[in-house]
Each structure stands twice: as structure tokens, then as C-alpha cells.
């Protein structure tokens, strides 16, 4: 499933996931990280976080940077049903910015396989 591209253009579909808490926090007290991976290019970003609730702020930074650099807008954000993605503030932001949200069913990490695989690769490196 990881090798199947679902999108035809950059930023059509972004896979995201939060990982943590890490067994040993990174320098600066970072216990979590969030990944964003473009489905079309497989290019990914990683942001360190001290707390899960920082996910929304990291997404806004990511969105601003990639849309500015690429000149396209994010169309769809795919995530698990983690609470960090389900806040009213996060959902309202997606709607206000014309983005669709795709939430994978609880207990089915394989349906968000690209994000899960990226996290596993990063954890193996640490």
C-alpha cells in the first residue's frame, strides 16, 4: 500500500502522524515529533514537539512553508484519529483553508501506512 500513489500532483494529499512520547527525550526536552509526507513526491518534513498539542501549530508552519515554496495549496490531509487532529480549532482551520480531512479508522495504522512507515524509519535511525 505504501507504493501506491493516490495523488496526481504535489500537495494533493499529505500524510501526517504524531509519534511519541519517546523513551529518551531529544535535546531541548522534545518528546514527540510530527511528520508530514507528500503523497506524490514522498518528500517529508519532521518537526519536534514537547507536547502533542503543538501539532496544530506545527501544521500551520508546514502549510505556510510548502505552499509558499511550491505555489500550490494543500488539498487533503490524511491522519489517524488522534485527538491532536480532531480539535475544533484544527478542523475549523482545515475548512477555512479549503482542505479536506481524511481520518483513518481507529486501530488501523496500515491505512495511514505512509506516515506510520516514515515514523518507524525515523525511530530506527534514533
Report on the structure:
GO terms for molecular function: nucleic acid binding. This is Integrase catalytic domain-containing protein. Residues 1-126 form the Integrase catalytic domain. It holds the Pfam family rve. A five-stranded mixed sheet has the order 3-2-1-4-5, sandwiched between helices. It has a single domain (13-125), classed as Nucleotidyltransferase, domain 5 (2-Layer Sandwich). It has three helices and five strands, in the order E-E-E-H-E-H-E-H. It is globular, with a radius of gyration of 14 Å. With 126 residues, the chain is of the alpha/beta class. It starts with 12 loop residues before the first strand and ends with a helix. Helix 2 links the parallel strand 4 and strand 5 (100-103).
What are the salient characteristics of this protein?
Nucleotidyltransferase, domain 5; alpha/beta; 126 residues; 5 strands; globular; five-stranded mixed beta sheet
Order of helices and strands: EEEHEHEH
Strand order of the largest sheet: 3-2-1-4-5
Approximate strand percentage: 15-25%
CATH fold call: Nucleotidyltransferase, domain 5
Could you list the spans in which at least 5 consecutive residues all have pLDDT below 50? none
Return the CATH architecture: 2-Layer Sandwich
Under CATH at level 1, the class stands as Alpha Beta
**Individual helix count:** 3
Q: How many structural units, i.e. domains?
A: 1
Structural category: alpha/beta
Gross morphology: globular
The overall average pLDDT, rounded, is 87
SS elements, strand count: 5
Amino acid at each position: 500500500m505504501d507504493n501506491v500513489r493516490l495523488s496526481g500532483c504535489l500537495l494533493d494529499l499529505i500524510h501526517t502522524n504524531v509519534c511519541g512520547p519517546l523513551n529518551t527525550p531529544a535535546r531541548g526536552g522534545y518528546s514527540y515529533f510530527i511528520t508530514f509526507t507528500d503523497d506524490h513526491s514522498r518528500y517529508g518534513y519532521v518537526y519536534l514537539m514537547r507536547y502533542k498539542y503543538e501539532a496544530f501549530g506545527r501544521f500551520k508552519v508546514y502549510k505556510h512553508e510548502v505552499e509558499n515554496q511550491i505555489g500550490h495549496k494543500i488539498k487533503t490531509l490524511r491522519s489517524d484519529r488522534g485527538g491532536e487532529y480532531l480539535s475544533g480549532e484544527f478542523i475549523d482551520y482545515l475548512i477555512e483553508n479549503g482542505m479536506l480531512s481524511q481520518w483513518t479508522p481507529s486501530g488501523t495504522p496500515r491505512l495511514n501506512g505512509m506516515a506510520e512507515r516514515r515514523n518507524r524509519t525515523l525511530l530506527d535511525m534514533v
